[in-house]
Predict the structure of Vacuolar protein sorting-associated protein 26C.
Amino acid sequence: MSVSLDIRLKRANKVYHEGERLCGLLVVVSRDPLQHQGVSLSLEGLVNLQLSAKSVGVFEAFYNSVKPIQLVSSTMEVAKPGKVPAGRTEIPFEFPLQAKGNKQLYETYHGVFVNIQYTLRCDIRRSLLAKDLSKSCEFMVHCQPQKAKLQPNPVDFSITPETLQNIRERASLPRFLIRGHLDATCCSITRPLSGELVVENSEVPIKSIELQLVRVETCGCAEGYARDATEIQNIQIAEGDVCHGLSIPIYMVFPRLFTCPTLETTNFKVEFEVNIVIVLHDDHLITENFPLKLLRL
């Protein structure tokens, strides 16, 4: 028997806020009438925490607190046991999106060691001899816009051999001077990160200038915290030995799902940073780091 099951949400972008209702249709397409023991719909929101390979074994007690954190979990019966006629059947549903107890819903985020995910799952239970049907559908939760107003607060930077940290032999470094500014380090997640950069001088020709967005995920418990930084995206903003004194624009859009407003809770933190990376022709790598605070406004 050929049967297909699908969950169709009314909102094309699948973005919801706490307190709203998820409305949509369950679509069952069957060649023959389908006998079932009930149709149920469940909604679940989970935070999955994971330890990086370097931290495994360091925090034994962490495994007790690494269990998924349940933010929302509820189930409703959509149809009582019965029969679905042959052809296409649409079953409408409405599901309130409400956090569990005193918990709050965090924004959907797909990271490496922290994952915040919301799913809607439909199950059609069938008799012992027939296989149950199930279908899952991920939707996104955005937190309510924060009331804070963003004040323009440009951050000026100047990169020279003297300003660099973690350098063993400073004397052997070629001379260079790179100036510029970021328009803000407290950013709205829906607006691009912008600024400009000027290479004033450089003894060694420049190979490439890149903009690297980094996620810093911290997972932990009372015993300690594991903090890991991983790259989200890398954008090349200049190629080759650029003209000295020329203003190079800095422009980066924050990717959906892989970024979220900066988040700090008792068990985990999600923060973001941006690196300006200058690669010289002799393969010296110069990096300037800026912590970012992301907000949804």
Notes: The chain has two domains: 3-141, 155-295. The longest helix spans residues 62-65. Residues 155-295 form a domain with the Immunoglobulin-like fold (CATH 2.60.40.640).
